[in-house]
Amino acid sequence: MTRRKQDVAPGRLDHVGVAVRSLEEALAPYEKGLGLTVVDIEELPTEKVRVAFLPMGDTRLEFLEPTGDDSPIARFLQRRGEGIHHLCFQVDNLEATLERLRKAGVELVDEKPRAGAGGSRVAFIHPRGMAGVLVELVEKERS
Ligand code: CO
């Protein structure tokens, strides 16, 4: 493997995740009102969500609709209602960033990378150690 093992600090905001009850209802004002465009709707059976992405400049909005009552998004909606669910930061090397977080004593949701939308590799950091923000890390696509 010839990947650089350099910076572990995130390089950009990859997307903002928004929990919604219905993609169709939630997307309407963003598409018809703001003029954003949905480029991709994908179902992630392992996460029990349907996901829609709307590009916006260098970043994206990610809308998450639960596909079952036991979905983490369904539980979030029950507790908090619709709204911002997580921020996703792009990193060059997911393992290196997770290792740095561990060393700093930050509580992780995922000790190891798992599969995210679009075949990406992701890991979540627990909001407890992140000022109440659920943070997702996504590894920059290898090119
Ligand atoms: Co996300």
Structural classification: alpha+beta
Strand line-up in the sheet with most strands: 2-3-4-1-5-8-7-6
- CATH class, named Alpha Beta
Alpha-carbon distance between the two ends: 13 Å
Runs in which pLDDT lies below 50 for 5 or more consecutive residues are none
Helix content: 10-25%
Overall strand count:
8
What are the main properties of this structure?
8 strands; alpha+beta; 143 residues; binds cobalt (II) ion; 2,3-Dihydroxybiphenyl 1,2-Dioxygenase, domain 1; eight-stranded mixed beta sheet
Task: Report on this structure.
- The protein has a single domain, classed as 2,3-Dihydroxybiphenyl 1,2-Dioxygenase, domain 1 (Roll).
- It has three helices and eight strands, in the order βαβββαβαβββ.
- The relative contact order is 0.21.
- It is α+β, with helices and mostly antiparallel strands.
- The model has no long low-confidence stretch (mean pLDDT 92).
- An eight-stranded mixed β-sheet has the order 2-3-4-1-5-8-7-6.
- Bound molecules: cobalt (II) ion.
- The site of cobalt (II) ion (CO) has 6 residues, from β1 and β5.
